[in-house]
Amino acid sequence: MTRLTAPSCRAARALLGWSMRDLREKAGVALATVQAIEAGGDFRASTGDRIVDAFAAHGVEILNGDAPGARMKAGSYTLKG
Hints:
Number of helices: 4
CATH topology: 434 Repressor (Amino-terminal Domain)
Structural class: mainly alpha
Radius of gyration: 11 Å
Order of helices and strands: HHHHEE
CATH superfamily: lambda repressor-like DNA-binding domains
Strand order of the largest sheet: 1-2
CATH class: Mainly Alpha
Strand content: 5-15%
CATH architecture: Orthogonal Bundle
Distance between the termini: 25 Å
Largest sheet: 2 strands, antiparallel
Number of domains: 1
Shape: globular
């Protein structure tokens, strides 16, 4: 599974125009968890998976490797919400 990092989480939210509260709602996690992740805190792998899945469901993929971050999936277009 893709590894979620603080910068990639912030980048993915920015691509979608989501607030932390939007991500909390879409991923079904606590707001404090989103805040902790984006501050570089520790989190469960299953929580990271839920967030990555929420981004993927809205056309954003998390990148790892040489160029970590986030990008819109090819051919995808999404509106906030």
